[in-house]
Every structure is written in structure tokens, then in C-alpha cells.
Amino acid sequence: MTLRVPYNDYFSQHDSSNHPVRTTVPLIFMIAGMILFLADSLFIATGAASGMDHSVVTLMASLRTGAMVAVSRLFTTIGSTVATVIIVILAAAAFWLTKHQVQAYLLVGSIIGSAIITWIIKHLVHRARPAATYQVGTVEDPYSFPSGHSVNSTVLYGTLAIIVLYSALTATQRIWATVLCVLMPLFVGLSRIVLCQHWTTDVLAGWILGIFWLGIVGLAAKYLLGPLKDKRQEALETEDEQGHQSKGQSHQERRRPRVASSHR
After folding, report:
1. For this UniProt entry, which residues form the secretion signal (predicted)?
2. Which of 8, 21, 26, 33 sits 20 to 30 Å CA-CA off 15?
């Protein structure tokens, strides 16, 4: 026997736009992101990070192989500004053409916001990158803190994960898509360390800043995508109930005794 909990009985009080989880998780991202970003910044400003950062750079320069460099170049290219813009345009166009305009606006807005914040912090801090003798490849700008690749890839794939979680995909599909969206910024950030184009604390700051911004995106998604998910779920529940009613009526008609006609 399967226990069914009617959608409307529970979500009438805690629908997707009002469910506590939809608010709690983004707030945790924002608060934790702010605290960790300030801690990382203080770690750098006091000079406490200098020893670790330089040790990682020299270690990577001595240990990296041709294969590591090739893979790192690939993920660095994926996380570049040009690639990010292309991915956002293609994804937003796909959302728009499939009548998911809200998702398109959310994705574009999240990336524009993260790009602006990253640019402002970079030009305020002016932290120099590791020495060119350690670097592999060219860099987009001379400033190192925070890693723009790490920030924007975290926001891009994190926003896609949020959109997926509010989608009509199955639970298994949502899990696999979310795992992929978590791994991509991780690999992009690590590629910056392997290529010595950033200090380790720059990459950490990029991930953390991206998580903070995803908290804001998550709150926006709660109000923009939550009601859409509720309507879709209610429609499915209504269709399911109508299907059960139709089956019940058909079953009753089959069980109704037939009256034989008499001919005189």
C-alpha cells in the first residue's frame, strides 16, 4: 500500500515560494560566504597567506606534467570570459525558445552581477599575480584577487543548478545535473592553481564570493521560480486526481449488474 500525501494539503502552507528551506539555504550561503570571504581577505592582508601561497605555486610548477597542463588549459578555457558569455547566451536562448523566460532572465542577471562585483573588487585590491616565470599561458588582466574564473564559473553553474532544482526533471536527473554543476567550478578553480595564474587564496576567495552571490540568486529564484513550480505541481496533482476518478468510475460501471431485457 502506498501512502500518498496530497500536494495541496502540505504545500498550501509551505509552497515553493514560502518553504523554509528556500529561504534558509540561500541565507546560509550569504552569511557563510560573507564571513569566509572576509576571513580569507584578512588572511591575505596580514601576510599570513604569503608562505602558503608561494609554497603552492613552487610546488605546482615543479610537479605539473604535460597532461596536467593540457587538462588545466581546457578547464581554464571553459571558465574564461569568452566561453562564459557564449554558454550564457546559448543557455538563455534555449530557455527563451522553450518559453522559460524567467529562467533566462535569472541566468543573465546572475552572471552580470557576479562580473560587476568581481571587476570592482579586482580594481580595488590590485593584488599581483604569481611571477610570470611560474605561469602557463596568458591572463585576461593583471589583477589576481579574486579569481574571476572561480567566481563566474561558480555563479554560472550554480545558477544552472538552482534552475534545475526548480525544474520538472526527475529527482535522479536533478541530482546528476547538480553534481555536474558543482564539479565544473571546482575543476576550473583548480586549473588556475595548476597553471599558477592565481594564488590559492585567490581561487578560494573566488569560490566563496560565488557562493555568497548564489545565496542572493537563490532568494531571487524562490520568488521567481517557486510559484512556477507550485503551479506545475498543482496541475500534475489535478491531472493525477482526475485520472484516479476516471478509473474509479470505470471500475464502478464494470461492477454494475446488467438488467436482462425480456421479450414477450
Report:
1. none
2. 33
Give the Cα separation of 260 and 57 in Å (integer). 93
Instruction: Please write the tens of the pLDDT for every residue from 59-88.
Output: 999 999 999 999 999 999 999 999 999 999
Q: Which helix (H) or strand (E) holds 113?
A: helix 101-125
d(CA 222, CA 19): 9
Residue count of the chain, please give it.
Answer: 264
**Residue 82, all three cell numbers:** 569568452
Q: What does the CA dihedral 87, 91, 97, 99 come to, rounded to 10 degrees?
A: -160
Contact call for residues 233 and 171 (beta carbons, < 8 A) = no
pTM of the model: 0.79
Give the C-alpha separation, 123 to 102, whole Å.
32
The SS3 of residue 143 is strand
Q: Which helix (H) or strand (E) holds 153?
A: helix 148-165
User: Can you name the residues that pair with 128 across neighbouring β-strands?
Assistant: 143
